[in-house]
Design a protein that fits this description.
Elements (H helix, E strand, L loop, with lengths): L10 E8 L2 H11 L3 E6 L7 E7 L2 E8 L2 H5 L5 E8 L2 H10 L3 E9 L3 E7 L5 E6 L18 E8 L2 H12 L2 E7 L2 E8 L2 E8 L10 E7 L3 H10 L3 E9 L3 E7 L5 E7 L3
Length: about 260
């Protein structure tokens, strides 16, 4: 594996689907410090794709939700991508493990190969070919402000989801008690890849979903700022012992993300 590649089974990219790119980026520039770069769409597609940047390095992308997504009721959201060595085999594994392939493996000319899937509890994610021309998010120094530092599955069936991801990506659950509730880390050997927790009654009818977290320098300041500039706070800033201070916010269009002020900041 080359140095810039992400290990198979690890998250390699995040992508914001939104109704208004300029409005969304104005919000996230103030919250996560993101800037942007427009790159031409490959082939004969025309138009551009918006890259999200931290320190002028690509950490994710953003696109306008298309008519088919809106017709299906897809709200503004952050999508997650997991690196795999074979997209076609990965799609087959997803189906065999009880998931759904929402978009069969396809090529993005001169860029890479991917598929979109849904786990058996309803959470959506994508897989990305590790040997693609585009490797995914730049590998910046750990806990760099604005980078994706964690991804967490909120699900209505921990056991079913854990079994699925173990079969598809080899993630092994590691159970622990965290701040008085049960939390599951998903591991590849000794590497924590993601987290998983059961939906609580307070979350209401929220579907099973992946939540992406991003590093901030002050959770309290960013929560206050998010509310001031039109966002919404779903989970107020609170401490996790040994991890840091976190919160859940939504941008003015409704896309939800987690922010984390690491304990060492």
């Amino acid at each position: 594996m080359t140095e810039d590649m992400h290990a198979a089974g690890t998250f390699c990219w995040i992508e914001l689907g939104t109704n208004d790119i300029d409005a969304a980026l104005d919000f996230y520039r103030q919250i996560y410090g993101w800037t942007k770069r427009e790159v031409p769409m490959p082939g004969n597609a025309g138009g551009t794709y918006t890259m999200l940047l931290v320190d002028d390095r690509e950490i994710g992308g953003v696109h306008v939700l298309g008519p088919h997504e809106k017709a299906a009721g897809v709200p503004p959201h952050f999508g997650t991508y997991v690196a795999v060595d074979d997209v076609d085999a990965g799609a087959a594994d997803i189906q065999a493990a009880g998931g759904k392939v929402l978009a069969e493996p396809f090529d993005i000319p001169n860029i890479g190969r991917m598929a979109v899937a849904q786990d058996p509890t309803g959470a959506t994610f994508s897989i990305w070919l590790n040997s693609s021309a585009h490797r995914g998010a730049a590998k910046l120094e750990r806990n760099t402000v604005g980078t994706n530092c964690w991804n967490e599955l909120i699900t209505d069936n921990i056991d079913r989801a854990g079994s699925f991801y173990s079969k598809v990506f080899g993630w092994q659950p590691k159970f622990s008690e965290m701040n008085g509730f049960q939390y599951t880390q998903l591991m590849i050997e000794d590497l924590p890849v993601a987290g998983m927790m059961a939906k609580s009654p307070e979350m209401g009818p929220m579907p099973s979903t992946w939540v992406s977290y991003f590093v901030v320098d002050s959770a309290d300041d960013k929560v206050a700022l998010a509310e001031k500039i039109g966002g919404r706070v779903y989970v107020p800033a609170m401490d996790i012992d040994g991890v840091g201070r976190f919160a859940w916010i939504a941008d003015p269009q409704g896309a939800v993300s987690g922010l984390l002020q690491p304990a060492d900041r």
